[in-house]
Amino acid sequence: MPVWYLMNISYKDHCKAVGDIAKAGIDVYMSAGTKQAIGVDGHRVKVVKAREQFNVGTFTILPFETEHDAKEPLGYLIYSSATGDKLLFATDTYYIRYRGSPPHVRGPQVYNRLL
What we know:
Metallo-beta-lactamase, Chain A, 19% helix, single chain, three-stranded parallel sheet, four-stranded antiparallel sheet, alpha/beta
């Protein structure tokens, strides 16, 4: 089973061990703003953009903007094609601006099944 880490915000209680996690061979996904704010780099650090889905193994992940006073925080909408399970990962946000299926998503309409 693949192991990976989704970074949502640049606060120390969320990112203190990111460097160690990457050194342990685990891919870490985060926004460019979060990467810049915490000053982490390396081939295990993967920059993702809000509203641009990506795949990790059998998971399809859609990062989305969250509302917080950090630099470019993200939430994640996650779908497992292996099990059909869905997960909305959104912490440290005071508002989620999306409702229903995002009309801007192209490609597989996996998000119609998610929401």
